[in-house]
Amino acid sequence: MNRRQLLKGAGAAGLGVAMLPFLKTNAFAASTDTAVVLIGNTINSLDIHRPGTNRPSYQVAINCYDRLVSFDLKKLSNGALAYDYEKVIPELAERWEISDDRKVLTFYLRKNANFWDGKPVTAADVKWSFDRALALGGFPKVQMAAGGFVSPDQFSVVDEKTFQIKLNKPSKLSLPDLGVPVAVVINSTVAKTKATADDPWATEYLHKTPLGSGAFKVARWDAGQQLVYERNDQWACGPVPSLKRVVVREVPSQATRRALIERADAQLSFSIPNKDAVELGKNDKVKVIGTPIDNTLYVACLNQIFEPFRDSNVRKAIAYAIPYEQIFQQSAYGLGAKMWGAASATPTEAVWPQPFPYDTNLEKAKEHLAKSGFANGFEVPLSFDLGVSDWAEPSALLIQESLGKIGIKVTLNKVPGANWRTVALVEKKLPFLLDNFGGWLNTPDYYFFWSYIKGNLFNASNYDNPKMKQLIDETLHMETTDPQYKPNILQMISLAFEDLPRIPLYQPTLESAMSPSLNGYTSWYHRQLDARPLKIG
Amino acid sequence: MNRLLVITKRLLQAVPTVLGIVIITFLLTRALPGDPAAFFAGPAATAESIAQIRTQLGLDQPLPVQFMTYLGDLVTGNLGQAITTGQPVLQELISRMPASLELTLFALLISLSISIPLGILAATHQDTWIDQLCRFVVTAGVSLPTFFTGLLLVYVFYFLLGWAPPPLGRLDIISISPEHITGFYLIDSLWAQDFETFWSALKQLILPAITLALFTLAPLARMTRAAMLQALGSEYIRTARACGLSNGKILRTYALRNALLPVITTLGMVFSFSLGANVLVEKVFSWPGIGSFAIEALIASDYAAVQGFVLAMALLFVALNLCVDMLYTFVDPRVKLDG
Asked: Is the ipTM beyond the 0.85 threshold?
């Protein structure tokens, strides 16, 4: 058997005979229906529910699967496209109804929505997929719980095309949470045939073979090298993508990715360092798009288990001693949103993130330190994750230098990526650390929920204020139109300003470089590639 | 002694070594800082979900139990699942080892074809410009780090001149990998008589191979030169000259053959360290090799992957040492392979 025969055989087995037509085209690089996308990390699974699936793999859930709902796109002031958290739009569901007590959500699925194998998407598929997200545990379960989906009993099949969710309590987060990458709908008929007694949710099969209804199918996956998407011409849940094929190549070296995009051998280099973004921005042959990441901050956390940090004056001294502008220039290369220097300590807008009322003022810092119980200074290790050293290391060095000037001796503690989560977030035992938490659901209370309540994962500072907790509990599920919503958020922000368990350095951006002819690049809260709106020319 | 018997004996001798390596890597990976369960539980994991993953990975068991499970799996050829790439470790090794070997062997071929003539010339023309050139090449080769040479070559030949193809791994984007026979794309594509793929694979291979060759050139040229000098100064060469043998014959038959022994030893060493040390070359050229796989696994405390990698390398080294010893007997019949 020669290779071509083999390929034909493989194509019949679902591996993608469609690879062949484009194989020998010389005009490949110039074609308008194929794009080459470069990423720096490895996609390690095609199944977002599977334990161990890493972040870069979420893009498969986005491009190959549909959710009940999605978010509309909007144009930002800089001309870039971004998702619009305020506008939840239909994806698999053509419409939905919310009961008067807001505890029952009923979704009506599109009549013409089919899986890739032609089988119609039914409410039973939705139920099976949601049950699976809860059953497999780990991150999908946590993310589903954020929307109030905690038990399979809440999901019911009304009829073939009608799916219902009953909530334990009404929440403004429920609907948007159905649009996050984990809430995908899987072809349960096929998946069930692949399930075994040991593996009732077909994780082994779905790990390598997606079963979706989404805009792209996976034509080929060479783990550690590339993923090839191929358009689903029958996609019913949105405008059929303009690109026929998207080749996602894993290129570990940043320098190589940059050379490739400058030579126009790739159409998009997804997520590039800020330094490159600034330099490439001056190059006419490359277009750079960067947008601030919603509900995300790079912060310095002051852990309450460390005695000096229980002293409010020490925390304020540090907030006045951090060299914000220098950090912004040297670690963010001036890209992002400034989060310091607010004129007033009383917030007036219920938006998050927003600048804190501190700026670099060593005199004030010294005053506060003198008033504290630690007037002679102290020594503290500042920890950061080596995996994000591109911004964390320069920031840490600048903080070290500046705090030294007010008598706080900072030592640097670099923690390897494998260890970071355990010590920083699970054990929460680092006294002073740099963190980069961002919330997928874009409301201030959602950010506070994860990082300002004692015991919650991203509260690496062990911050514990009963008033804050009470406010968050009251507000988390409250509609934003509720008259109490804005006052509550303002109070939370005031507490964050005053108590300073987390001192924001700046709000980061996600930068990508692309060929000038590539249009439709869209920024998302999940920070992953959405290939669906991409278009060449 | 029967050669086959000797080989069998040598292989048997390797068993305790490999066993020792299995134990040591098992213990060392467990001593790595970091908790794979927490790492793989994902971005919003709770203590409960981390515990769940720990159970799935079998990491909640006591060490001796984990070790017995590991041994049991090894016997059945199951090296476990690499969590970083989501594939079985065995499959990763099968696809990545040939990629690294192809690159390393090709680089050594380039390196040998330059270093041995260069070393001989330097030895026969001591202290002339050829000798100085050899010295320069050797010093440059050793002192330039591979990632630097790699990036430099990419910059000049791909970025500026556009002669080299995009550094995107083993094949360009429009080709697909040949059917897996040996895993060496050059061989597999020739086997399938697919010259287009062969050409594509060769083009992709040249730049990383030169990078690696520059690095391995130095010890080989150096050793050839030194061994040749020693051989040329020895008494049997004087005798040969006295007997009126031609210069060429003296060089090839008498001097070179005797000088080759230390060169082969060096070759074995260079091969083994470059196989492990080409991680940086792999990164620069997006080469899906064994080195970058091992590094990623190490960073993530991916136990199964690290253990599989070390085991594979250990077996490879045992085989390599055997090959080197066998080569000795061909080059110098006086050397005996004893068990």
From this structure: no
